[in-house]
Structures are given as C-alpha cells and as structure tokens.
Amino acid sequence: MPSTPRPLRKLGFLTIGLFDAADPARGHESTLEIIELGERLGFDSAWVRHRHLQYGISSPVAVLAAASQRTRRIALGTAVIPLGWENPLRLAEDLATVDILSGGRLNPGVSVGPPMHYDHVKDALYPHSADAEDFGYERVRRLLDLVRGKPATDFSGVEGFEVFSDVVQPHSPGLGRRLWYGGGSLGSARWAGEHGMNLLTSSVVKAGDGDGPPDFAGIQLSHIREFRARHPDGEAARVSQGLVVIPTDSASPEQRARYAAYAAERLPRTASPQGPARLLFAPDLVGTSEEIAERLHAHAAFREVDEVAFALPFTFGHEDYVQILTDMATKLGPALGWRPTAG
C-alpha cells in the first residue's frame, strides 16, 4: 500500500444526531452515547452537525455542553454552525462558556450564506431586518473578533454593585485558534487562510466552471493548498477532511448489504456537478478498512491532511454507528498510521 506524506495524526467523526419527533430525548441521548463511545475508543474528536427546523441537532452548542460533562479528553466540534441563523455576539458568549466548561476542548466550525429556505423563515428569524441582513464573511469576522477578545462595547467599569466588561465573558484565550471555517470553494479557503482560521473540508465542493470531467480530489486539493498559501502558519495550518466513510470489517451481512445500497443510491450525484451552485459530491467509501485505506492513500486531497472527521451516514441506527466507529478506531485508523489516544 502506498505511503502518505502526512501520516494520520488525528482521527475524528461527525454525526448528524437524528431523532424521532415523538421521542427526541432518545435521539439526543444516542448522540451523547456515541460521543462517549468515541472517547473510549481513543478518537481525537467528535463533531455534530447543525439542522434547523429538521429532526436533527438544532442547538449543537447545548448538546456539546452536555457532552463536555460526560467526557474528559475528546475534542468537541460543530460542523458546521450556519451563521445566518446566529447573532455573533451571543454565539461568542455561548462558545466561550462551553469551552470553559469543557476545559478548552471546543472546536467551533462555522459557515456563511443565507439560511436555508430563507424566504419561508425570514419573517420568524428577522422580522424587521430580513432584507438588510448581511450573510457574507463579515459575520464570521465579527465572531472571530469577539471570540479573540476585541471590545464589544465602549462601556466598561462599575455601575452600582455590578461590574461590566467591554469584551465577551467568559473569555477563553485559546478558543480563537480553534475556530474552523467549513469551506467548499476556492474563495472560502482563501478567506479562512487570510483570517487565521482552520479549514474544514467535507464530501462537497464547488466544481467551478472548468472544462473537462470534474475531479473531486483535485478540486479539494487546490482548496487546501490555497488555504495554506494564505495562512500565517503556512504548511502547518490545520485542515480536516470529512468524507463519508463506512468500514464493514465487523458488520453483519445485513448491515453490509444496507450500507452498499445506501452508497449506491447516492452515487449518481457524484458523476457531475449538481444544481446552480455546481456542487460536486464525493462517493461514499464503503468496504473493509484495508480497501478504504487504499482508496484514501490514492486520494490527492487526503494525502495533504493529517487529521480527519469522517462523516457518519445520515440515516443509520445506533448499533450501526457503534459498529462503524469501532471498526474505524480498531481497523481503519491503524491502517492509516493513526494510534488511539490513551485515557
């Protein structure tokens, strides 16, 4: 098997945290149990998705606050919080609070753009300012400044019995270097690098308008290299890859058949760019850990990273996730040169 120039240093996973509307507590508990399992298996990080007005995690910061009290080592991330739904000042306070509670383990990932189905939700979300809201990079810059300790107000000092600060409290000094941007375009990779963020890549990129057949790995590789070229840390700048990966080493025959059917149903969207945004999807990687490792070592973008947050499939059951994570930690990770974190 070919070697990779960047041996895998950090292994993480990403879950959507689906739940049944009739029993949302069970779904949230399942997510917390999966994160606890990840820590026991030695994973370096656990990430949760963000879904509004759907049957997934709508408040990842709250879920990770709970996870921080049930774990002690594993890093906890969001992939990603869409900032179009957020007030950067309030979000900065929540993130700093959870980072303090977790002992400095929070890794917030964010993205920009208008909220999904904005025309249908804007009256509830921004009833008086819907047409004036800016959903571009300025929203991220505001969050960065506030998390990193720039003043939020020109007022501070003592008023009566109360003491006021001009910066977000609590202030968590290391959090500013653990902010990630979830980017799938060359422009977002460039912006994230210029502003000293970390870069979260996923199984989706913007294909652009180039000629010839689309090459997902090549496009993602160009994003990673552009990001590092613009980042103050250069080649040491952190990039995490988030492909959908499903090892089957210990899976039952029924599970293997279901996993293969899931990947096959999603495969057609990988053949060409989808929609007006020309989104290109990577194929899901299903097979034994040896087979998946071989495919990853041949992936041009994977060869440029030393940390991953492999995405768990959306619609599988709790026991499926237990099997997949166990195989990732005991079979796939070691095949990629990774070793579990002790303790």
UniProtKB/TrEMBL annotation:
GO cellular component terms listed in the entry, alphabetical order: cytosol
Entry keyword Oxidoreductase: yes
Residues in Luciferase-like domain copies: 28-298
Keyword vocabulary terms for this entry: Monooxygenase, Oxidoreductase
Annotated InterPro entries: Bact_Lucif_Oxidored, Luciferase-like_dom, Luciferase-like_sf
GO molecular function: monooxygenase activity; oxidoreductase activity, acting on paired donors, with incorporation or reduction of molecular oxygen
Pfam name, any one: Bac_luciferase
Matching PANTHER family: BLL6902 PROTEIN, LUCIFERASE-LIKE MONOOXYGENASE
Protein name: Monooxygenase
Organism: Streptomyces capoamus
